[in-house]
Specification:
single chain, about 450 residues, mainly alpha, Growth Hormone, Chain: A, disordered N terminus
Length: about 450
């Protein structure tokens, strides 16, 4: 049995930092594998669509899981769910390794493992995110959320860097073995730490306890609070546009415009990760503005402006500079958004509420992922060839040929996202979400 302990009030950060450290090691291994798989897929197909489909198949099960994962997380031991999620990820990596070593690995195997990892990875992520409020004191919510961005940034820097160095030496097999070793480290750490379980919520009891009411509780909770609903709708639109303008497009654009220069791709990914690390560190030290909604709106607008400049670039140096800028501002949106939800929702019902939040904001994202690849391969890329329909209009800004259409697509969608951020700041229900809704008690 996994050791457990009675519930206790969150008073410090050591437990969170211990878990964070183990998850960081595992994330670095996962990023190495993602980088190696992206190169393998691009070399095999030479198209953006398969890379987008990997994202699509990893995302679809998370949307499906969000229908029931919240109930599981609020009912079951959250520590055990985190361990299960890590374990499944490790087993899927082992499966890819065995298939590759037997010369049987095909692109559909990657899609299948993406589905499995997406499903269990979401349950793990939800269990961990809802555990933050039982581990970390309220005053540190923004800092803890920023630490999660730092984890992402460090893994984004070190993962591609290590993969770029070691992939030519040890190949895909070696990278997968390293990933498996990092998974073992993460699970070993989780086994010995204590994650408190929240008490039952009075709010939930007042809404009934049958299965249907449990499944719909999170949605009803959000819809009854206009501020949270406005924040949710903003993130829904922002996430959708973010998928249409990346991240499945960034790798093929760089590879196409750099003649398959994997070192350039790794450098840009590292620059983006460095930017996230710096931005998240600033939030960790600063703590954020008194009204965190301003951090969300400003961060989203500046991130998209940086993406526009990124798309206009044609050299690795410009890509690295603008990727660093985009990375710096990107944690503002996620960290402050998470901090608002952690402070406004009772920890005992965060599983169901956060799952409902995720479903609403992410349900259209798979469509965005598919659309992004389709637009790139069949609309923007053909239109930005030397004799393409858009070449005469935008060729001076983005150039022509391979990758130019993807760059135009990223820039156009990023511009529209900036407009959405500016419009959001004018909405009273969104701008005053923290004023109109009290913290949980």
């Amino acid at each position: 049995m996994i050791p457990t302990a009675p519930e206790e009030a969150p008073t410090s950060l050591p437990t969170f930092l211990t878990i964070w450290g183990g998850q960081l090691v595992s994330a670095i291994g996962s990023e190495m594998t993602k980088f190696a798989i992206a190169i393998w897929t691009w070399e095999l197909t030479g198209k953006a669509t398969p890379l987008s489909l990997i994202l699509f198949f990893s995302h679809i099960p998370t949307v499906i899981a969000s229908f029931f994962a919240g109930v599981l997380v609020d009912r079951w031991n959250r520590k055990q769910l985190i361990i299960v999620g890590d374990s499944i990820a490790g087993l899927s990596t082992i499966a890819i390794l065995l298939l590759f070593m037997s010369n049987q690995l095909e692109i559909w195997h990657i899609y299948l493992t993406a589905v499995i990892n997406g499903l269990f990875g979401y349950v793990q992520t939800l269990a961990f995110s809802t555990s933050m409020s039982t581990i970390v004191p309220k005053k540190h919510y923004a800092r803890a959320s920023a630490m999660m961005s730092i984890k992402f940034s460090i893994s984004t820097i070190l993962g591609p860097a290590c993969a770029g160095v070691f992939y030519p030496l040890i190949g895909l097999v070696g990278v997968l073995i390293v990933d498996i070793m990092t998974f073992i480290v993460a699970v070993s750490i989780l086994w010995f730490v204590h994650i408190p379980q929240p008490k039952n919520s009075k709010v939930e009891k007042s809404h009934g306890d049958n299965n249907w009411q449990e499944l719909t509780f999170g949605f009803r909770y959000i819809f009854q609070r206009p501020g949270l609903l406005a924040l949710l709708i903003f993130m829904l639109i922002y996430n959708f546009l973010g998928q249409v303008s990346g991240p499945g497009l960034i790798d093929p654009m760089i590879l196409a415009r750099s003649n398959n220069n994997t070192a350039a791709l790794a450098s840009v990914q590292m620059a983006f990760g460095a930017g996230i690390s710096i931005g998240a560190t600033v939030i960790t030290v600063w703590g954020g503005p008194k009204l965190r909604i301003y951090g969300i709106l400003l961060g989203s607008a500046l991130t998209e402006f940086s993406k526009m400049l990124f798309a206009l670039g044609r050299t690795p140096l410009i890509w690295m500079i603008t990727a660093t800028s985009a990375g710096f501002f990107s944690p503002f949106t996620g960290s402050f958004n998470q901090a608002i939800w952690l402070s406004k929702v009772d920890p005992a019902i965060q599983g169901k509420v956060f799952a409902a939040r995720y479903l609403i904001t992410q349900m259209i994202v798979p469509f965005g992922i598919v659309v992004s690849g389709f637009l790139a391969d069949y609309i923007f890329e053909p239109a930005m060839k030397t004799d393409g329909d858009f070449a005469g209009i935008f060729g001076g800004l983005f150039g022509t040929g391979a990758g130019a259409g993807i760059a135009l697509q990223i820039a156009m969608i990023a511009c529209f996202s900036i407009v959405i951020s500016i419009f959001g700041s004018s909405l009273n229900s969104l701008r005053n979400v923290e004023v109109n809704l009290s913290d949980y008690h």
